[in-house]
């Protein structure tokens, strides 16, 4: 494999922010894409932005965001109009990364911000079509074995832990003991112990770093939720690259162990792993730094 093969998978991203209204955010996105805006009268107060190629971006309301705006240089409480979630269509790294980063910079210049006190996060969706029972088990083992390293390196904030819990040990043990051979068997194991109906959109099982509820119910994606909110274009790129690299490792590796590695030097351990999954060379120097910034 070449060092950039892992970048070829499709992905989508959700970026939560405040500081500007949804209408202003939609205008920034539409101007950047040279697209059109359509207002959808739904619960999420959605504004759809359609690109010239037909792809649709969305600006939506999210009730978990603590809304603020800047007045006289100070951040003050704001109305729910300042609850902004940007939802992308299906993207590819080669075609869309540069444009996505520029869009984020324009949103920040327009007054948007995404910080820990606003309870904002970033969610990355990875194409689930190529995943098999083996690769899904690999993915769960990859995340579980590096739970602590990932949470420390990404500086996942305590207040967001409810929305991106660590991979559950009992779930991983059950999966590895039973070695399911179908996605339906994995789905049954995933939902064990929950009282909610599986079809419920906001099912409690979704609130983990690795969310498979999105794979089994509607979206057809594997979602990674363990990224703090930010409008730093370089950090967003690094989170996408990390997600694509882990996804590629899960898809291509014959097996992955759930055993947690012995770690004496966390920074070295994280850097070694990042290099192994594709963060090699000058192209990914900034990504390595952002994905391993705390140590």
Describe the structure.
It contains 10 helices and 10 strands. It is of the alpha+beta class. α1 (22-33) packs across α2 (93-109), α3 (133-145) packs across α8 (233-252) and α8 packs across α10 (285-291). The chain is globular and about 55 Å long. The two termini are 30 Å apart. The chain has helices at residues 22-33, 93-109, 133-145, 147-153, 169-178, 183-190, 213-216, 233-252, 266-276, 285-291; strands at 11-17, 36-39, 47-50, 56-60, 68-71, 74-77, 84-87, 121-127, 210-211, 221-228. It has a single domain (5-291), classed as Creatine Kinase, Chain A, domain 2 (2-Layer Sandwich), CATH 3.30.590. The chain is 37% helix and 17% strand. The strands form 2 sheets. It has an 8-stranded antiparallel sheet. The chain has a two-stranded antiparallel ribbon with strand order 5-6. The longest helix is centred in the C-terminal third of the chain and has 20 residues, at 233-252.
